[in-house]
Structure formats: C-alpha cells, structure tokens
Amino acid sequence: MSSEAKVDSMELGDVLVLGPDEGKNYWQPVPANGHISVRIAPENLRMETPFSIGTQTIPPNSYVREHYHPIHDEALHFISGEGVARVDGKEYKVEPGVTIFVGKNRRHMFINHGPDDLHWLWFIQPNGLELFFRDVGTEKKAGQPAPEPFARPDNVLEIEKTTAFGPPLEDAHIPTF
Known about the structure:
Elements: H1 3-9, E1 24-27, E2 35-40, E3 52-58, E4 62-67, E5 73-80, E6 83-87, E7 90-94, E8 99-102, E9 108-112, E10 118-125, H2 129-136, E11 138-139, H3 156-161
Antiparallel strand pairs: 1-2, 1-11, 2-3, 3-10, 4-9, 5-8, 5-10, 6-7, 6-9
C-alpha cells in the first residue's frame, strides 16, 4: 500500500483559523474586569482530548481572584503589560514573554499593579474555563467600549462548581492597590 493511499484512508481532524475579532468574546465582572476571548474549545470543533485556549486582558488595578482547579492543568503565556502571578502564596513577576504552568490544585491568581492592561494567553486541559467565562460574563462585540464594572452573577458559586473551579477559598488573598 502506498503512503498516498494510507493518507486517503486516515480520518482528518478539523482546522480552525480565527481572525483577531473572531472567537467567543466576553466582558468579565469584578474583580477581573477586562475581557476574554475563547479561541478554541470543544464546542467549536472536534478534538481527541478536550481543552480550551484563549486570551484574557485585565485593566490596571484589577485581578483574577485566587482560586484553584481540582482536575485541570493550566498554562499561561504573558503577551503585554506587567503584573504579578501569585502561586501557592509565592509571587512571580509577569511581563511579555513569561510562561507559567499551574498544575491541578495549585492556588493561583493574577494581579495588574501596572499602568497598562495585562494581557495573556491561557490554555486549560480538560476544558471548562471557557464555560465559566461565558456564564459570568456578557458578550463583547468588536469595537464596543468597556462597560462600567459589573458584579459577578448571584449564582457564581454554582457556575464555578460545574466548570473548572474548586470551592471558594476562605483565606483567599485580596490585593490592595
């Protein structure tokens, strides 16, 4: 059998190419504020091992609250801005080019003390984070101005429980600005 025949009989996976304003985009509630863009998720295409990938941007004096993922591994790559990643109580400076891997059950948060937006790429496996962002956020359209800061939904604990988060941390770190 020729290699050409083998290729013809193989099942081909999906291909997805997104432009800068495509994807599922959502404004996020306090304390993160800012916005996220889900770029790849199982609801978009077929994949052998479920994961999701996207970007998150938080403005100055905002943060992603301290949390953990009981069954998820997460990788983050910082693209612009400067801030702090706090992992298990230890702080790491983040700036363009820094990459962080956070394994399951590791407490972590991201803080923007800088003067500019903090922007990063996130990858989580298995997926679930994209569902949280959808359920707590509001749809963001291209060119739309940022809304006034808004509260997390009343049922946020139920949303967290069914997506990628462990129960709330009673002693979670809250940064001061």
